Known about the structure:
Layout: H1 3-20, E1 36-42, E2 48-57, E3 62-71, E4 77-79, E5 87-92, E6 98-103, E7 112-117, E8 124-125, E9 133-139, E10 145-151, E11 173-174, E12 178-179, E13 185-191, E14 197-199, E15 207-212, E16 218-223, E17 236-241, E18 248-250, E19 258-263, E20 269-275, E21 287-293, E22 300-301, E23 310-315, E24 321-328, E25 331-338, E26 344-348, E27 353-359, E28 365-371, E29 374-382, E30 385-388, H2 394-397, E31 404-411, E32 417-424, E33 434-440, H3 454-461, E34 465-469, H4 479-483, H5 492-506, E35 510-520, H6 522-533, E36 539-543, H7 559-566, H8 569-579, H9 581-584, E37 593-598, H10 607-619, E38 623-628, H11 638-656
Parallel strand pairs: 33-34, 33-35, 35-36, 36-37, 37-38
Antiparallel strand pairs: 1-2, 2-3, 3-4, 5-6, 6-7, 7-8, 9-10, 10-13, 11-12, 13-14, 15-16, 16-17, 17-18, 19-20, 20-21, 21-22, 23-24, 24-25, 25-26, 27-28, 28-29, 29-30, 31-32, 32-34
Keywords: Acetylation, Hydrolase, Protease, Serine protease, Signal
Signal peptide: 1-18
Region (Disordered): 207-226
Amino acid sequence: MKPIAILLILFFAGQTFAQTNVKRNLKPSDVYRLQNLSDPRVSPDGSWVAYTLSTVDSVKNKRNSDIWMVSWDGKESIQLTNSPESESQPNWSPDGKYLSFVSSRNGLKGSQIWIMNRRGGEAKQLTDIKKGDLDDYEWSPDGTKIALTIKTQLDTAKVKTPKPIVIDRYHFKQDIEGYLTRKPTHLYLYDIATKKMDTLTKGNFDEKEPKWSPDGSKIAFLSNRSTDPDRNENTDIWVIDAKKDAAIKQITTWTGSDTSLQWSPDGKQIAYLRSTSPDNYIMYDQNVLCVVSSNGGEPKVLSKTLDRPVGSPRWTQTGSSVMAVVTDDRTRYVAEFSATDAKMNKIVSGNRSFTTLERHPSGSFLVSMSDSQTPTEIYALEGGAVRRLTKHQDAFLEKLQLASVEGFTSKSKDGMLVSNLLYRPANAVIGKKLPTIFYIHGGPVGQDEYSFDLTRQMLAAAGYAVVGVNYRGSNGRGLDFCKVISGDWGNKEVLDILGAADYLVQKGIADPDKLGIGGWSYGGILTDYTIATDTRFKAAASGAGVAMVSSMYGVDQYILQYDNEIGQPWKNFDKYIALSYPFLKANKIKTPTQFMVGESDFNVPAVGSEQMYQAFKSIGIPTELIIYPGQFHGITNPSFQKDRFERYLTWFNTYLMKK
């Protein structure tokens, strides 16, 4: 073959290789490609990790979750279920031979526990719960019984005319659940051999998080057994012998909240999370790590001096310390706390976000982790280093070019230093001013962190610099930073957003003539507050927000917040009026704004968006209202998720991409 022919072959081969490796920007339809991993569980022998993988069928417009497992060495990955209905809550039998899960497959009206041989084969229905909704379950250590929590079900017999919903509760509305009647969730004991179900708890109280003692003799659980559980956020740890008609013993007496309980390996102690405050209302609080004797008594606070939220407590193999995830200034890291002297040792950190923690029989740990460029995957945590086990996100990422993410600190008008994140579009020219969207997180108790954020990446893919502002009220900066906005909404948070905007304009990053703002939930609320305070934003997208606070008492699910933060309207109406300034000063707003909300949202009901839309229409400010049918506070319908991204981009492009 002649040299020129060889060169031509090599040239065209190189061109083909280059074309197949060209990366593109995110687009709204990519919501169909992103997979979600959750509920990882290590097998008793440590050889396998079971988990759920959620995927989208774009043709059916349906999200479905299946059970998978991956070997501990990461070399084998096996899909165990593949039914049209979702499976969730995988758990191993204590002997490791079986995997159980929860599903309403085969046309069941409610969820049941199913069991399958881990080596394969068809799953079999284990439980047959006829009256009630299964909430949670856990195998006994000897594998002969299962502890369950089941929510009482009202009479659902089909009738031509539905019965009226009769309500007598203080807290009577909740997103997804709807109107709240008295349907307590109780603890039950299921015998696998006889299929007999015994009721362990009774009364007008809810039980949750059942956990067996290591010797299988007792079950610990959480319950609010105060006089009127609706009027506080209390939960305590209780223990009951694993048999019918046994007495219940109260272990903790904190009037705040106790949660996430875990027995020590020897059964002598229980690790758990406790609210910092003993108050009956703990909106702006952060969990601290505690241990208490399994017989009760004075608990020991292990993270008392940390001033950061702690989550996912898990005992080490020896029982001498407790591992946990710590939320800290845009990151979440893994730390170990001594159960004797409370000394903390940071195990693994960095600009990333750890979530799930599960102990491996070897003494190592399993973690879930994501970073700014990688959606959540499952990892082994060994000797302070992580080793990736699952690789489900590779197919999603291989063709994409993503925005780079960097942290920056801005100073607000009152001198407060605020931590933020900046998403720079891929291939952005350094030194060139960019149209910039401030996408504000909800909560308000939460934080923007170095984890994968599809919304901000999607906006950046359209050529925008995108900003996450950890305004006051966010966690990760300490309790005082979080609590300072209590009863003072739309004040300091707006100062922090505007301070971040000033910083980026001064640095020549943000184009001051092309600024946009948006968010969902409290992010939507702050969008309304910000455009009512400052006219610099040329476009806004307010999702599931509210601006006329004075009209919301009894309309949403936050009755405890209203009564405890700003008081009852007939006693403190001036405060309600002051907090309603975006609506009452709507005639001073200049920003074209789209409003979005789920039709069935009981968290921040549609009326909040409808009022602002109507005000804008009446005044003549460019606006639109998008209501997603059948959706609650979170938009879960895949086609609606895609639609929301498309509408964001169309709206912002109309006002911010003009030359």
